[in-house]
From TrEMBL:
GO terms for molecular function: transmembrane transporter activity. It is a multi-pass membrane protein. The keyword Transcription regulation does not apply. InterPro entries: ABC3_permease_C (IPR003838), MacB_PCD (IPR025857), Macrolide_Exporter_MacB (IPR050250). Residues 321-434 form the ABC3 transporter permease C-terminal domain. It holds the Pfam family MacB_PCD. It comes from Flavobacterium terrigena. This is Putative ABC transport system permease protein. The keyword Cell membrane applies. It is found in: Cell membrane. Keywords: Cell membrane, Membrane, Transmembrane, Transmembrane helix. Its main location: membrane.
Amino acid sequence: MEAKKSTSKIVTNSTFYLHISRILIFMILYLRLLKESFAFALNALRNNKLRTLLSLLGVTVGIFSIIAVLAAVDSLKKNIVDSLDGMDKNTIYLFKYSFGPTDVEEWKRDQFPHVKYDEFQFLQKNMDDIDKISFNFFTGDQTLKYDENTVNSIRVKPSTSDFFEIEPFKVEKGRLFNEAESNSGTSVIVIGSEVAEGLFKGGEPIGKQIRLYGQRYTVIGVLKKMGENAFGDTNDVAVFLPVNNIRKLYGDNSNLFTPAILIKPKEGVDMEEFKAEIANKMRNFRGLRAGEINNFFVNVLSGFTDFIDDIVGQMNVFGWLISGFSLLVGGFGIANIMFVSVKERTNLIGIQKALGAKNKFILFQFLFEAVILAMFGGLFGIILVWIIAMILTSVLDFQFVLSAANILLGSSLSIAIGLISGILPAISASRLDPVEAIRTGM
């Protein structure tokens, strides 16, 4: 019995090793087949340089179009996200305008009243879940003067002191104005780095007086340089002063200013409940009856980023639709070239088959040729996008990003185009009868 068991084990082991050997031999032969097919494909491409170049152009344009659009959209999104970095995404902008699409008709929105300073004070005193709240004016650009020096197109941002704790600010010199100065409307001002350079030419700005709105303001702080964000906004060419100072000069109903209340909630607050509480407080303060629509908008910054994401998604779809036509043309170009190549090499295919070449060898030979064409076309398209992105980044004050995901996508699309475009010509070449193929070529 033991002898039979050992004999059975030997037979089983022998069968196992035989199967392994066959698999290894098959893999080696298959790899050799792929290698030879690849070499034939490269040789065919080298021998037809002009045709290869023309085939490359179609795929290059298609891949360039798609990757360029995706890279531009990704860059835009990244710059927007970076510009909002450091800000609490739950920050609320309460005023008469909506960040995104709304069901309220435009003529109704035009009749909405602006938010008031007493509404800001009412919310400040009557809401427990507020961390910071600020009253701001949005207004047009102004000209500032110091002695003989003048700077133009400066963004003026009147606000209460808590605004500096809602948005991120870094001070290079001096300080920001405090609550007492904010409440009293003291004539003090905090200026951006480029404003300081333009007015004081490297001199000491702190304590100096500059002219704005026909008034004198004492410089108490200079902000660190931050650069321009995706919205074209920068604090480098902005100045900040107490909103109550402007209210004393122009009142609350000037058309020069658009008031807004900025609210930063406490951590862990349920945002939907918080927004609903703000809306209820505002409705009660304004005396709105049941059934009347809100004549204000409670805009959450995260909602604005969601809105941006929707726009980015639509831009991506639009880009894919346009670029898809370029890819389609490129694919048809490769397929056409491959059919021509099959026809030109019919005699060679017949000779290869007569010498023992299998259908798979012929199939892979032409399939590799199509894939290599598409891959090089895609590679050139990606390189072209990268070069243009580098140039635009250096010329413009905007960071263009070519992500690894987009590079991988471009490469995958190239391979897919090559496979799809080359499969029919490759199949037709592999099915040629060797005798007919040789006769056709003679």
